[in-house]
User: What shape does this take?
Amino acid sequence: FPPAFGLLGATLGMISLLQTLGEPGAQDRIGPAMATALVATFYGLLTANLVLIPIAEKLSSVSQADMTLREIIKEGVLLVHEKKHPIFIREYLRSFLPPAQRIGDDSAPAAAKKAA
Assistant: This one.
């Protein structure tokens, strides 16, 4: 939304600028009207890039982690319902995790084993 507000401010500033062009003494009003247009655009871009985009990326990351967890739970419940062997279920569900996060896995890196 901030880029849209910036664009709105720029548009209103340009309208103000263009309205004064034919009037006497317009050269004194062109600068402030143009400044309003550019400042509104700047604030919109600044807010979007420094505040909203980082928040959106963080929320996307948290949402992706939550979806992965829900997928693992769903698969686990389905495998238990199908009466699969517990070792098979454990290994299958571990396959969803990156190798560094697999606890008790022989193929996991040594650093991950020390952290566990």
Notes: The CA atoms of residues 67 and 73 lie 10 Å apart. The mean pLDDT is 83.
